[in-house]
Amino acid sequence: xxxxxxxxxxxxxxxxxxxxxxxxxxxxxxxxxxxxxxxxxxxxxxxxxxxxxxxxxxxxxxxxxxxxxxxxxxxxxxxxxxxxxxxxxxxxxxxxxxxxxxxxxxxxxxxxxxxxxxxxxxxxxxxxxxxxxxxxxxxxxxxxxxxxxxxxxxxxxxxxxxxxxxxxxxxxxxxxxxxxxxxxxxxxxxxxxxxxxxxxxxxxxxxxxxxxxxxxxxxxxxxxxxx
Length: 227
Known about the structure:
Strand order of the largest sheet: 2-1-3
CATH class of the largest domain: Mainly Alpha
Domain Apple: 1-55
Number of helices: 9
Order of helices and strands: HEEEHHHHHHHH
GO cellular component, one term: extracellular region
Largest sheet: 3 strands, antiparallel
Keywords: Disulfide bond, Repeat
CATH superfamily of the largest domain: Tetratricopeptide repeat domain
Strand content: 5-15%
Radius of gyration: 17 Å
Helix content: 55-70%
Pfam families: PAN_1 (PF00024)
Protein name: Apple domain-containing protein
């Protein structure tokens, strides 16, 4: 099976996926829950997969998220510090331009540029804040650090951004995505227990095949380490 076919297969097996974009350069498969927002970019191949009526997939505002006990108080403090840091940022570019450039950079295998664009975008307190915080977190996770200081900062920023993606989520899909990204960020910081809890919370909202696979992999790894 070709990588594109594998990407399509993953999308078909994911209840939240209506579209995918595959980037051959970095071999990333991007799943999308809204095919109307699918954009082509240089170096990427985009496709649509619709397995059920979109009329039956109405977006429902589920309100503010509940408190999660597995996200430690010191991590919340880190997130608040990041928010204060971002409050002082300014950009001559519009929010729309920053979002577009961030998404394009991510799809073209340039997560560092994507991270900077999303970082500026979230400083503008946009209406679709959860989606942009999620983009910031994912690009921070994907950026290769040039030194230990950057590694620590990117991991902190990814964790903090995932927290804000969760706090500003208002749909099941947004919240499930934020929790799955939070799990990845916590896992990268060797916090496997809260990472598993974040994966479980995500799966309780949306039964995603890709998230379940990541959850099972981490659970098996944690069991192996403790044996």
